Structure formats: structure tokens, C-alpha cells
């Protein structure tokens, strides 16, 4: 019945009890009769571009899934809007709505809410409890997005231009949805700084970030230059008889030598076997015995240092073998 000059819904249309879709687009309708309650199979109703000043309460008792009431003269929505439990799409754009009732939080099936070009000053916090996918509140007078909107995990599209937004600021809003929700997460942490970490961590909201929750954003683990790169990932392809040894980084042999030289503790003969004062007058054979012991300890220490240096060099060579095998494989 669209594009006519109807001033009200024809009574005959209210007798079609099996009617599922009714299109009254672009008429002159000012009033919807209560007889519309007979249409208990109606799921789609388009009453846009008419002259409705209020949304009749009895519309909220229909099993509607889609309600389009844009381009009218609505100044508010009835509290009974929360009765539309099956509603998935609500379009009340291009009206004169100043407030949205809190009962909109009862619309547990709502996926698309369009309140564009109205006179809204604030957004209802209860909307955060709705599984919205698309939200359009552009061309209003909204100054702040409630922090609780970070709970809109299914939201994919948010349109908010032409609002005097201060929170988030404009430079955040123009960057898009991801930056908006990061800002809301940060604000939530500031509001409740004493919450435990698991309560204050940022929430996902249906974006690609959730795919990389276990690693830095966009990072791909190539298996190269990591601790277990040789042992677990390439051991079957390198073809080297040497068992891979995990090292933390590549270092040159000169660096190893310099490190071992700088950290070497000088060993004085007196620090190895210090003699008490009562033994100052020892025989010549006893002194020779002590000297031989000191020489033996010094020799053992040097051998240990040499073995450690050889071990580090072997690790470097093994790492180089692994690296060459990985490059050959790639």
C-alpha cells in the first residue's frame, strides 16, 4: 500500500489475519488503529515517510521482526518497545526523538538499530546488553559513548559522525571502530582501577584481533630465531647428525672469548691454599708440595675455562648448522 495518500491504515487490511508483511511507505498516515492487533502473523512493517507523531503502543504487541518507522515526526519511543522480543531490525531514523527508553535493553534479538538524524543527547546504557551488529546514531547531539558499550562484542558497524563527541574525542572516532573500543577499554580501567586483571582486560568485539589473542597483533611465528626453532620445528629437515642445541642468539667467537676473559676471576696462590701463621716455618719439601698443589689447581681452572669456551663455540657452530639447514629448506 506504499506511495498513496492514505491518512490511516484501511480497516480491510486489518482483517488479513495471515498477513506477514505490510508496506505503508510514503503515505499521509497520522494514526494506526488498534485493529492492527488482528495481524498476529505480521513480522515486517514499514510505516516510513508518514506523519506519525507517536508510535502506537499496540504495535509493540505484534510479533514483528522488522519495524521501519523512519522519516516521521516521532518525538519519543514508548516504553512498551521492550515487548518486541523478536525484533531484529529497528529503524527510527530522521525523526525528532530526544530520548530512547531503557526498555530497549530487553530487545534480546535486536541486530540493527538506526536512530540517525534525531535529537538524541545521550545513548541509553541498556543498549550495551543487546547483541547489536550495526549501530547508527549519526547526526545527533551525543557527546559521549557510554563506557559499557565496550560489551557490544558482536558489533561490526558503528556510524557516529556529525555528533559533538567528547568521549571518545574526534581524533579517536575518525580512526574507526577498533580505536573507539580500545579507548572505551582504557576508560573502563581508569574508572575501576582496583579490579583484578581478568576483570579489566580488554573485551573482544567481533574483530580480527581475536584471532591473534595469544601473540602480538599481526605477529606470525615463523619458527626462526626462537628458542625451540631447531628442536621442534626443523629437526626432521636439517639432516644434521648433531643434536640441535637451543641458544638465545647468535654471538661471535671473539665475543665469547672477550666475555670469558672479562669474567675470569684471578686466582692468587694465597687464595687457593692460604697458610696459617703457625705454618710459616715449613720445611722445604712442604713448600714444594704446596706449590705443586697450587699449580694443579691453576691448571685445572684453566682447563675448565678452555672446556667452557669450546662448549660455547660448539653451540655457535651448531646454531650455524641449524640456520643453514633452515635457509636451505626454505
From TrEMBL:
Residues 265-278 have a biased composition (Low complexity). It holds the Pfam family LRR_8. Keywords: Leucine-rich repeat, Repeat. The keyword Protein biosynthesis does not apply. One of its GO terms (cellular component) is cytoplasm. Residues 259-279 are annotated as: Disordered. The keyword Repeat applies. InterPro entries: Leu-rich_rpt, Leu-rich_rpt_typical-subtyp, LRR_dom_sf, LRR_domain-containing. This is Calponin-homology (CH) domain-containing protein.
Amino acid at each position: 500500500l506504499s506511495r498513496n495518500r492514505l491518512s490511516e491504515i484501511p480497516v480491510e487490511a486489518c482483517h488479513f489475519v495471515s498477513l506477514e508483511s505490510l508496506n505503508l511507505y510514503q503515505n499521509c498516515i497520522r494514526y494506526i488503529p488498534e485493529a492492527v492487533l488482528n495481524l498476529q502473523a505480521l513480522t515486517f512493517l514499514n510505516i516510513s515517510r508518514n506523519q506519525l507523531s507517536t508510535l502506537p503502543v499496540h504495535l509493540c504487541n505484534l510479533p514483528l521482526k522488522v519495524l521501519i518507522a523512519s522519516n516521521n515526526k516521532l518525538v519519543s519511543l514508548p516504553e512498551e518497545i521492550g515487548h518486541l522480543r523478536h525484533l531484529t531490525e529497528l529503524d527510527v531514523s530522521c525523526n525528532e526523538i530526544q530520548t530512547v527508553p531503557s526498555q530497549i535493553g530487553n530487545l534480546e534479538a535486536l541486530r540493527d538499530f538506526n536512530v540517525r538524524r534525531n535529537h538524541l543527547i545521550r545513548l541509553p546504557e541498556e543498549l550495551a546488553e543487546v547483541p547489536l551488529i550495526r549501530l547508527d546514531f549519526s547526526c545527533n547531539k551525543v557527546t559521549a559513548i557510554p563506557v559499557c558499550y565496550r560489551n557490544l562484542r558482536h558489533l561490526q558497524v558503528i556510524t557516529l559522525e556529525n555528533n559533538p563527541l567528547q568521549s571518545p574525542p574526534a581524533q579517536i572516532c575518525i580512526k574507526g571502530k577498533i580505536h573507539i573500543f580500545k579507548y572505551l577499554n582504557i576508560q573502563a580501567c581508569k574508572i575501576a582501577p582496583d579490579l583484578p586483571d581478568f576483570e579489566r582486560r580488554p573485551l573482544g568485539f567481533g574483530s580480527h584481533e581475536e584471532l591473534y589473542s595469544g601473540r602480538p597483533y599481526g605477529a606470525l611465528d615463523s619458527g626462526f630465531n626462537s628458542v625451540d626453532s631447531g628442536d621442534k620445528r626443523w629437526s626432521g629437515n636439517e639432516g644434521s647428525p648433531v643434536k640441535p642445541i637451543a641458544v638465545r642468539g647468535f654471538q661471535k667467537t671473539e665475543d665469547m672469548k672477550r666475555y670469558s676473559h672479562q669474567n675470569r676471576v684471578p686466582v692468587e696462590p694465597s687464595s687457593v691454599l692460604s697458610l696459617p701463621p703457625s705454618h710459616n716455618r715449613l720445611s722445604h719439601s712442604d713448600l714444594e708440595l704446596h706449590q705443586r698443589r697450587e699449580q694443579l689447581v691453576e691448571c685445572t681452572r684453566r682447563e675448565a675455562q678452555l672446556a667452557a669456551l669450546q662448549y660455547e663455540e660448539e653451540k655457535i657452530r651448531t646454531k650455524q648448522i641449524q640456520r643453514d639447514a633452515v635457509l636451505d629448506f626454505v
